């Protein structure tokens, strides 16, 4: 037992002992209801758990498997091949097992599109119950067909009350105490991540001989704060939003601060760079901005951390200080709204391409002049104007 980490030792085995995520596991939670319904219905859906680190995704998957009395196979997408999963499916078929095994795939967003495609038929045919876990938005990281066959459940960052409950169990197990100031320090440094809290506590406990753990002991164990989520519970998606809005407002200092928050948290630089590429087209007047943003993306892709943080910073400063103009973006969105409203309006005959003799005879291309100033919009919306230069309206 000495080699088993504290988070694993204290991992709950039942929903009764599980801490947090009351909206999912409480009396009216979907997981609770699904497990209760198992007594009359053998079906259990595939799930995607989306939430911050240390919020109970793996634990919930294990509890579900135990409750259903199903085979449980745990994989990490970082070091797993699809054939590993397919092998166990084939074995299940050979053994003629009735209930589909539960396959837990941690960091499912690490599987590329082709790998996710290969999982699709096994989920669709009920060969497995897939439970994927991800810290990334599944709308962007999980292919649509697979996403449509799974129920996405969102896990929230653990509250201070949740962390205190887990902390109490840990201190009882370690036979240690924390003063109020040390307790506050540990809670803030953990940023809603129970695993971080328990790991730091375990290291600090091993460093001291006295019954009480103090702040210097925690600082030594921690070495570096976990920046992925701040103490107010603001997650990464709020930080990336703040980053974009700061650049849009030309607040270069705020943009650099939120960029630094993401870099310090170890956020994928390509994710940040992709958002900068989108921003360059949506919000900046000069087309050079797109060239700059693409160059930042390529630099990040080529050299990676830590050096690419300098490329991100240079790009953020350029985009934040550049002249802003959303005229192109707004014009396109208006045009798109009309497409959705009116459907496929007929293209005027004069600008249709007369690729056959018959087309030419019925009037395709007739009257077209290369530099004609007349509106080329369909008849129903002729004269409609979408594009206005900045401040022209």
Keywords:
52% helix, Rossmann fold, alpha/beta, two-stranded parallel sheet, 4 domains, Helicase, Ruva Protein, domain 3, 5-stranded parallel beta sheet, 393 residues, Zinc Finger, Delta Prime, domain 3
How is this structure best described in words?
The chain has 393 residues and is an alpha/beta fold. The chain folds into four domains: 134 residues, P-loop containing nucleotide triphosphate hydrolases (Rossmann fold, 3-Layer(aba) Sandwich), CATH 3.40.50.300; 63 residues, Helicase, Ruva Protein, domain 3 (Orthogonal Bundle), CATH 1.10.8; 86 residues, Up-down Bundle (Zinc Finger, Delta Prime, domain 3), CATH 1.20.272.10; 39 residues, no CATH class. Helix content is 52%, strand content 8%. The chain has a five-stranded parallel sheet. Helix 10 crosses helix 11, helix 14 runs antiparallel to helix 17 and helix 15 runs parallel beside helix 17. The chain is globular, with a radius of gyration of 28 Å. The termini are far apart. 28% of the residues are buried. About 2% of the residues have low confidence.
Write a brief structural summary.
By secondary structure, the protein is an alpha/beta fold. The protein has helices spanning 6-9, 22-25, 30-37, 57-68, 82-95, 113-124, 138-141, 144-148, 160-174, 180-190, 194-207, 215-222, 236-248, 252-264, 269-283, 288-303, 308-321, 327-342, 357-361; strands at 46-50, 72-76, 102-106, 129-134, 150-154, 177-178, 212-213. Belongs to the AAA ATPase family. RarA/MGS1/WRNIP1 subfamily.
């Amino acid at each position: 037992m000495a080699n088993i980490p504290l988070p694993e030792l204290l991992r709950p085995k039942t929903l009764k002992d599980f801490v947090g995520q009351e909206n999912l596991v409480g009396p009216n939670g979907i997981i609770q209801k699904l497990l209760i319904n198992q007594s009359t219905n053998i079906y259990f859906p595939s799930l995607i758990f989306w939430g911050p680190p240390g919020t109970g995704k793996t634990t919930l998957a294990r509890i579900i498997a135990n409750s259903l009395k199903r085979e449980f196979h745990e994989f990490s997408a970082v070091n797993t091949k699809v054939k590993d999963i397919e092998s166990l499916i084939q074995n299940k078929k050979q053994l003629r097992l009735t209930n589909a095994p539960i396959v837990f795939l941690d960091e499912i967003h690490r599987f590329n599109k082709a790998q996710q495609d290969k999982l699709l038929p096994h989920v669709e045919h009920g060969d497995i119950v897939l439970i994927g876990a991800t810290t990334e938005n599944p709308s962007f990281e999980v292919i649509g067909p697979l996403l449509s066959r799974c129920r996405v459940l969102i896990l929230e960052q653990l509250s201070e009350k949740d962390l205190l409950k887990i902390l109490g169990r840990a201190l009882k197990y370690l036979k240690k105490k924390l003063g109020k100031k040390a307790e506050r320090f540990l809670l803030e440094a953990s940023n809603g991540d129970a695993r971080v809290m328990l790991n730091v506590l375990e290291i600090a406990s091993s460093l001291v001989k006295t019954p009480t753990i103090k702040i210097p002991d925690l600082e030594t164990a921690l070495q570096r704060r976990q920046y992925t989520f701040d103490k107010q519970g603001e997650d990464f998606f709020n930080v990336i939003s703040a980053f974009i809005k700061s650049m849009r407002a030309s607040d270069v200092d705020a943009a650099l601060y939120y960029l630094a928050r993401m870099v310090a948290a170890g956020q994928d630089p390509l994710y940040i760079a992709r958002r900068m590429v989108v921003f360059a087209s949506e919000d900046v007047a000069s087309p050079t901005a797109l060239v700059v943003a693409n160059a930042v993306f390529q630099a990040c892709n080529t050299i990676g951390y830590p050096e690419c943080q300098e490329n991100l910073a240079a790009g953020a400063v350029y985009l934040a200080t550049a002249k802003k103009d959303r005229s192109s973006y707004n014009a396109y969105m208006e045009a798109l709204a009309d497409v959705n409203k009116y459907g496929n309006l007929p293209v005027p005959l004069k600008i249709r391409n007369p690729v056959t003799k018959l087309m030419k005879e019925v009037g395709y291309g007739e009257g077209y002049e290369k530099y004609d100033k007349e509106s080329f919009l369909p008849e129903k919306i002729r004269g409609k104007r979408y594009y206005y230069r900045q401040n022209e309206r």
